[in-house]
Amino acid sequence: MRHKYLCWIPALLIFASCSNNSSSDSTGQADSVASEDMMKAENTKYKLPSPVELYLLLKEAKAQFNLDALNSVDKAGNYLTSSQKAVNFGIYASDLAYCTVFEKQQETHSYFKTLKNLAAQLGVTEGYDNVIVSRIDKNLYNSDSLYQITSDSYWEVCNYLEENGKASILAPILMGGWIESVYLAINSVEKFDQNNEIVLRVTEQSYLLENLLEYLKTLRKDAETESYIKQLEDLQYSFDKLYDNPDNVLITKEQYKEISKKVKDIRTSMIK
């Protein structure tokens, strides 16, 4: 039986459930992004929120922007196989969303340029063409527009890959984007507290991970992707331990440390 805080959280409503204490303006912006993502997700078999939603929560929770936690754009040339390029495309897309939400204009431009180059190498131009480049340039100092553009680009790529039967590229992109968002959330927690908003959102990622794994198991996969899946299954095992906690314990410090270590280890294996 599932823990009462974890039972069947709608994947695309996670951010909405945690914005009750934010300002009305910020909540309205977040709800707008979540609504847009929900509509775009209707065309996909696999439902996963854009990383923008989680990063909006981090900003509302007064988390500090941490550039050093991101995957350096200087490493983009190190990825040679399609799987490596795709999984790091997902990671860089997540990093781009993080930069836009925290209103880092220079970093936004740098990560978008890196994604545009990777997209070309993967044979994907949707969402990262010159039209989007122009939109980015015109809105560098408009944070609301920037993270909406980022979300648009993310969904255009996902929809294009699914509609054109390119699941072998979509799968690692989704894995990379998801693991990076959880990794950055974990890095935003200064001190463990089971009632911390960000800790709560990390525990809720269990449901998204279940969906992600179910989707990945339906696909034909290469050896690299299979290796990532095994690591994600091991992470799910750690999340599953939370279901056995008593009702007044969402997550223990040791459980959080175990989940955090596995997330960091998976992410390290992806960006090496």
Q: Which quaternary structure do these chains form?
A: single chain
Instruction: Write down the overall geometry.
Output: globular
Tally of alpha and pi helices: 11
Order of helices and strands: HHHHHHHHHHH
Low-confidence stretches: 1-45
Number of domains: 1
Share of β-strand residues? under 5%
Number of strands: 0
| Ends distance | 38 Å
* Overall pLDDT metric: 80
Range of helix content:
55-70%
Rg from C-alpha positions? 17 Å
Derived from helix and strand composition plus strand pairing, the structural class reads mainly alpha
Biggest pleated sheet: none
Task: Walk me through the structure.
With 272 residues, the protein is mostly helical. The chain has one domain. Helix content is 65%, strand content 0%.
In short:
The chain has 272 residues and is an all-alpha fold.
Question: What descriptive keywords fit this protein?
Answer:
mainly alpha, 272 residues, disordered N terminus
